[in-house]
Amino acid sequence: MRALLSAVGTRGDVQPALALALELRKLGHAVRMCISPNFVDWARSLGLEAVAMGVEISSRISSRPSVTPSMAATSSSAPTRTSMQRRRLPSTQALAV
Question: Among 7, 67, 68, 69, which residue has the least CB neighbours within 10 Å?
Answer without folding.
Answer: 67
